[in-house]
Write a structure and sequence with these properties.
heterodimer, A: 297 residues, 14 helices, 0% strand, flat, B: 311 residues, mainly alpha
């Protein structure tokens, strides 16, 4: 560049120009970075605002919750949470806990061996079986609700929490099989062969070699099953009444039985959403893998 | 001769034991699979056989004597039922509208999050939260706290810039449902796209920048093709869930005004549990399943490609 200047003196000295250009480009880039960061914050907060509003409303008195214009400054109170607990929410949450916990456990017990038979020691028609499982997820639930309702009525299984346990297990099992299969397939074959060469039996290989390697995958699977079972509403609405209703049914009952009690409804919503929100916040990595059924790392 | 027969018998025996061996091995491989398959068949497939049976009967729970075989009459009624057509159309609008809008927003959010900045983890955590909120709670939050004509935050906001209050859920019912659904599903798409962005080989991006490619050129010719697999997966899985949307419609509009915002799951629910018309509702269920199978055949091919499953 310097030689260029010397040989062609007529042109304006280009030596300073690129330097100034570079420094202003760097300045522009860092200004852009600041703007982008600010934009990301604004978008993120706006997107989260409805949740924040729900939480704020839960800490208001009813009069402040139903004010127009909305009240942003108020004296926070725990009255609404107290009211929720007083109105018998415990039964609903206990039912949700049973339906979610037991169905997730059953999904793992049934799903892990199935995934094993579709990956580590694969059967011949692996693709057909995988197709079968995922096709049941595409079967619209409304297409089977009538017979389930009629049959459950005939065998006296309406308004019974174990009916929900069975249905939630069937609802999550296909996802779990697909997920666990993805995780099993990442286990290198050499590792299993080495364990067998060492004379470890099948069960010992499973327990000491395979399970530790897929433990994060198992956690992701369980998380997804918990989310879908905890949040399920359609079966709970149609198949339960006084004995076996779950948390989502409680929210609806709060809204319809007492008119518009916005603050109490918000408090109930916060309580009902809290377990899954916290689990999802903690296990964000597992969430991505789980939501993609194991396809995305 | 005797030895030849003997040898033949021995050979036969060996063959038989080999065949038995492979059959035993086959069943040993299949055994861990059977409980899950049998359970799934009993709980999901057998009820559907009943649905087909119900669909050919005129059966209203309020009329116990009326449970008679009517053949395909229920199906004929469906295709002359204009509410069914509206519901089918709404199903398509809601499903396609939700997954496409959520995907566009998800891509934008993911691009914003895919750089190092102060509070990156915090903002990502905030952004995934709508997906974790219980859908029933989310639907009521939008119906009441956000879109209510009097107390709603949205009307207060547009009031600040001088726009008159709008009765969202009764004037624009499908649009209101879509807002709440897109809000819930955007984080799902964002997480998948973000995973795709982070899996990008960094050297290709740097090479593109060195070559002086603009941001848009890099995005459209390097990033987007790389993301394609993730986008397809997100749209497909999203659609599988969103097509069954019930909570939001039940809570935000109850299918109304009239039946203008009912989708198929909600309309079938109405016929079955409010009209007690089992035969008619079952027939609709059958029609929906046939439609789903047609779409699913194409969708599954895509899914199998995403998971690299070969024959």
């Amino acid at each position: 560049m310097a030689t260029n200047v010397e040989t062609v003196p007529a042109t304006p000295p280009p030596s300073t120009k690129p330097v100034r250009g570079a420094s202003s480009a760097a300045a522009k880039r860092s200004r852009n970075a600041v703007l982008l960061t600010a934009l990301t914050w604004v978008v993120g907060l706006l997107f989260f605002a409805p949740v924040l509003w729900m939480v704020l409303t839960a800490f208001k008195q009813e009069s402040a919750a139903a004010s127009s214009p909305p009240s942003f400054f108020f004296e926070p109170t725990l009255d609404q949470f107290q009211a929720v607990l007083d109105s018998g929410a415990g039964v609903y949450f206990a039912n949700s806990l049973i339906a979610t916990g037991v169905s997730t456990l059953l999904v793992i017990v049934l799903g892990v061996p199935a995934a094993y038979a579709l990956s580590i020691r694969p059967i011949k028609k692996t693709k057909d079986v995988l197709f079968f499982f995922i096709s049941t997820k595409m079967l619209p639930i409304v297409a089977v609700i009538m017979p389930i309702y009629v049959i459950a009525g005939q065998i006296g299984a309406l308004d019974n929490i174990w009916t929900l346990v069975v249905l939630y297990t069937a609802m999550n099992l296909p996802i779990a099989v697909w997920m666990m299969r993805s995780f099993f397939q990442e286990v290198p074959a050499e590792v299993l062969e080495a364990a067998e060469m060492d004379g470890a039996g099948l069960l010992k290989t499973l327990r000491t070699v395979l399970m530790p390697m897929v433990a994060p995958g198992l956690a992701a699977t369980a998380l997804i099953c918990v989310i879908f079972a905890w949040n399920e509403f359609f079966f709970a609405l149609n198949l339960t009444a006084a004995t076996a209703p779950t948390a989502p049914v409680f929210l609806v009952a709060t809204m319809t039985s007492e008119g518009l009690f916005l603050a109490k409804l918000s408090a109930a919503s916060v309580l009902a959403s809290l377990p899954v929100v916290i689990a999802g916040w903690i296990a964000q990595k597992q969430l991505v893998r789980g939501l993609s059924m194991g396809a995305v790392k | 001769m005797a030895t030849l027969v003997e040898r033949h018998n021995v050979k036969q025996h060996k063959l038989r034991t080999a065949a038995q061996q492979s059959r035993v091995d086959g069943w040993r491989r299949r055994a861990p699979l059977l409980p899950a398959v049998i359970f799934t068949i009993i709980v999901t497939q057998i009820p559907f056989l009943f649905t087909i049976w119900y669909s050919m009967r005129s059966w209203n729970l309020l009329n116990p004597d009326g449970n008679i075989f009517v053949g395909l009459e229920n199906f004929v009624n469906i295709f002359t039922d204009s509410t069914f057509r509206t519901a089918a159309l709404n199903s398509v609008i809601i499903t396609v509208g939700c997954v496409v809008a959520a995907m566009v927003l998800g891509i934008i959010f993911a691009l914003l999050l895919d750089r190092k900045f102060r509070g990156q983890g915090f903002i990502r955590t905030l952004m995934i939260t709508p997906f974790l909120i219980m859908p029933v709670a989310g639907a009521m939050l939008w119906a009441v706290s956000m879109l209510d004509p009097t107390y709603g935050l949205v009307n207060w906001l547009i009031g600040l810039v001088g726009i008159d209050a709008i009765a969202w859920t009764s004037t624009y019912p499908v649009f209101s449902i879509l807002i709440a659904l897109v809000w819930q599903w955007t984080p799902f798409m964002m997480l998948l796209v973000l995973a795709g962005l982070q899996a990008q080989p960094k050297d290709v991006l740097e090479a593109a920048q060195m070559d002086g490619a603009s941001w848009w050129q890099t995005f459209s010719s390097v990033t987007l093709p790389q993301l394609r697999r993730y986008i397809e997966l997100g749209l497909l899985l999203g659609a599988i869930y969103v097509v069954n949307t019930f909570d939001h419609i039940y809570l935000m509009t109850a299918g109304g005004p009239g039946t203008s915002s009912a989708n198929l799951p909600f309309y079938i629910y109405q016929r079955a549990f409010l009209g007690f018309d089992i035969g008619q509702a079952a027939a609709m269920g059958v029609v929906v399943v046939i439609g789903t199978i047609i779409v699913a055949v194409f969708a599954l091919r895509l899914l199998f490609r995403s998971f690299d499953i070969k024959d």
